From TrEMBL:
Keywords: Aminotransferase, Pyridoxal phosphate, Transferase. This is (S)-3-amino-2-methylpropionate transaminase. Pfam families: Aminotran_3. Its cofactor is pyridoxal 5'-phosphate. It comes from Metabacillus sediminilitoris.
Length: 449
């Protein structure tokens, strides 16, 4: 079998070391990075650094590269667009790609009703605008997000985000009228409850939240990640999502599915919310929508989207021509290469490997996933389930040093999450999973000696 990883130097190599020294002088430490190397080229699921080391990518630019790095179809679309014009500003002079993208996404989004779409730059902008739209439509101010949720780093989205460090600490005061509701975490449920009992308990907790924390008639929107991303790839049970949705319908609350990390094939469907049997009023999208180009959007019911007046939405670069063309290419690739199905195949392989690791090591537990959005937890032991952030960091670093780009997540920092491109080959996937196993063994096995 071909080895895709090539390590010519230690990580980081001498050229990356030189750039790191330059970075430390001029770039604030508040902008973090996982791998200490600097990229020179990336293709598919492989990334090469400036020292000639080649990595397998299980991070996918934090879930941005579902169709792979520099997919030829995306590159071609960008080249052709750049030759014609790079930017006019949609609010100055419009372009057809914006309209075509809106048409295709409103057709793909769940719901047999008329929809509209508006485009922006980043995931946080999409969430901000979903809140604006919901408030305008309902004439209410309250916004409900969920514990462990992540929605961005702007003032509003930082307020909606749960994890205090590093996202919120020292950055207050925060936006008013934002409330955090409980979100199920099956792995950490009370020991005396089975999964069905826990589901009913969490539903009751949400209902009680609307009595003790905020009145439903004051809420404009409930914003939910169908699978929590930064929170640790936590998959809620279907009954909980459906009951939250029903409560929204009963009380005139706009239900927003935040699909920024879960969208565009990652969970085995265009949108993760499709797995839960509910139809959101608004959907926020970004990340893999543009294959690396900055673009985001809000898709929603026409009667909700149309309430904003001209000039109330948008921005200078919102829905740029390059971003729109990249997104159109992404939709073509997902369909042509059947990436929704591929995500399910990848996910099963990853979960099988996770189960093997859990069977071997007392510290590997809490395996879970939906499609190719998979995660495991590193704990002190399976009995206590005490999160082990330090060991998680060691495994991620060991994997990086062996040529695998990997990410951690979770409010405790002890979750290893997998976000490889869905275009990854079986051979690359197998090698990457072997490196993950070797890195885990290198860190954990000495504890058994």
């Amino acid at each position: 079998m071909k080895d895709f990883v090539t390590l010519n130097t230690a990580i980081p190599g001498p050229k990356s070391q030189s750039l790191l020294e330059r970075r430390q002088r001029v770039v604030p430490k508040g902008i973090s990075n996982g791998c200490p190397a600097f990229v020179s080229k990336a293709k598919g699921a492989l990334v090469e650094d400036i020292d000639g080391n080649t990595f397998i990518d299980f991070a996918g630019a934090i879930g941005t590269i579902n169709v792979g790095h520099s997919h030829p179809q995306v590159v071609k679309a960008l080249q052709e667009q750049a030759e014609n014009f790079i930017h006019t500003g949609f609010n100055v002079m419009m372009y057809e790609s914006y309209i075509e993208l809106a048409e295709r996404l409103t057709e793909l989004a769940p719901g047999e009703f008329s929809k509209q779409a508006a485009f922006f730059n980043s995931g946080a902008e999409a969430v901000e605008n979903a809140v604006k739209i919901a408030r305008k439509y309902t004439k209410r101010q309250g916004v409900v997000s969920f514990t462990r949720g992540f929605h961005g780093r702007t003032l509003m989205t930082m307020t909606m985000t749960s994890k205090v460090k590093p996202y919120k600490y020292g950055f207050g005061p925060f936006a008013p009228e934002v409330y955090k509701a409980p979100y199920p975490y099956v792995y950490r449920r009370p020991e005396e409850m089975n999964e069905e009992q826990y589901s009913q308990f969490m539903i009751q907790q949400f209902e009680q939240f609307l009595v003790s924390e905020v009145a439903p008639e004051t809420i404009a929107a409930v914003v939910m990640e169908p699978v929590q991303g930064e929170g640790g790839f936590i998959v809620p049970d279907k009954a909980f999502v459906q009951r939250v949705y029903e409560i929204c319908k009963e009380n005139g609350i706009v239900f927003v599915a935040d699909e920024i990390q879960t969208g565009f094939g990652r969970t085995g469907g265009y949108f993760a919310i499709e797995h839960f049997g509910v139809t959101p009023d608004l959907i926020t999208i970004s990340k893999s929508m543009g294959a690396g180009m900055p673009i985001s959007g809000v898709i929603g019911r026409e009667e909700i989207m149309r309430v904003s007046e001209p000039g109330e939405l948008g921005g200078t670069y919102a829905g740029s021509p390059l971003g729109c063309q990249a997104a159109l290419a992404v939709l073509d690739i997902i369909e042509k290469e059947n990436l929704n199905n591929r995500a399910q195949v990848i996910g099963q392989k990853v979960m099988d490997k996770f189960q093997q690791l859990s069977d071997r090591f007392e510290q590997v537990d809490g395996i879970r996933g939906l499609g190719a959005m998979c995660a495991l937890e590193i704990v002190k032991d399976k009995n206590s389930k005490t999160p082990d952030k330090e060991t998680t960091g060691r495994i991620v670093k060991e994997a990086t040093n062996r040529g695998l780009l990997l990410l951690s997540a979770g409010v405790f920092g002890n979750v290893i999450r997998i976000l490889m491109p869905l275009t990854i080959s079986d051979e690359q996937l197998d090698e990457g999973l072997s490196i993950l196993e070797d890195a885990t063994e290198a860190v954990l096995a000495p504890q058994y000696i």
